[in-house]
Amino acid sequence: MNITLIAGSNRLGAASTSLLRYMETLLNDRQVTVALIDLRELPLPLFSPDMPELPPDVHRLLEAVTLADGLVIATPEYHGSISGVLKNALDYMNAGHVAGKPVLSVSSAGGPLGVSSLLQLQSIVRNLHGVNCPEWMSIGMGSGRFDAEGCPIDEGIRSRAESAVEQLLNLTRLLMASKATKAAFTA
């Protein structure tokens, strides 16, 4: 199983990226192949449908998404929405990259929770024909603290992250089995 994680912040030490990296360790512990795309480290030019040729970093992003069986997308919440960096990356994608794949949405916010960004992210996933995971996760101000090893200090956050990862893996297995069954019937 291949899961691609997309960190949608360009801030050094972003809580959303720290949470995503913690989820990466949970996936690695479960022997899942993980690709992490950190948009802070992979700057993309502003999307334009008139772009004659896609830059190599865009190809890297799209390849990681295409090869994934499931996705985890993390964003900080800015002004009640997802980050501009993440929106730009998502604009490069189309249904051919995301359709039928489970997607876990994750956010961090300066206030109590980042629910608005999660709702908007799930709307984008639906428009890309992805399958939103029934679980989502947001951490708010003060709860985004992590120890030196990258583990959330708050036990509740660790527990919620583990639950969200399990939900994603269960949904991914179900969808992969469904695709395999359909392929067997059409062969």
Characterise this structure.
The protein is α/β, with parallel strands linked by helices and 187 residues long. It has a single domain, classed as Rossmann fold (3-Layer(aba) Sandwich). Helices cover 45% and strands 17% of the residues. Strands 1, 2, 3, 4, 5 and 6 form a 6-stranded parallel β-sheet that branches.
In CATH, the architecture is: 3-Layer(aba) Sandwich
Oligomer status = single chain
Instruction: Tell me the major beta sheet.
Output: 6 strands, parallel
Radius of gyration: 16 Å
Number of strands: 6
Order of helices and strands: EHEHEHHEHEEH
Domain NADPH-dependent FMN reductase-like: 1-141
Keywords: Oxidoreductase
Family: Belongs to the azoreductase type 2 family.
GO molecular function: FMN binding; oxidoreductase activity
Descriptors for this entry?
Rossmann fold; 6 strands; 45% helix; 187 residues; 6 helices; alpha/beta
Per-chain topology:
Blueprint: E1 2-7, H1 15-29, E2 33-38, H2 56-67, E3 70-76, H3 84-91, H4 95-98, E4 102-108, H5 115-127, E5 131-132, E6 137-139, H6 155-186
Parallel strand pairs: 1-2, 1-3, 3-4, 4-5, 4-6
What is the gist of this entry?
This protein has 187 residues and is of the alpha/beta class. 45% of the residues lie in helices and 17% in strands. The chain has six helices and six strands; from the N terminus they run βαβαβααβαββα.
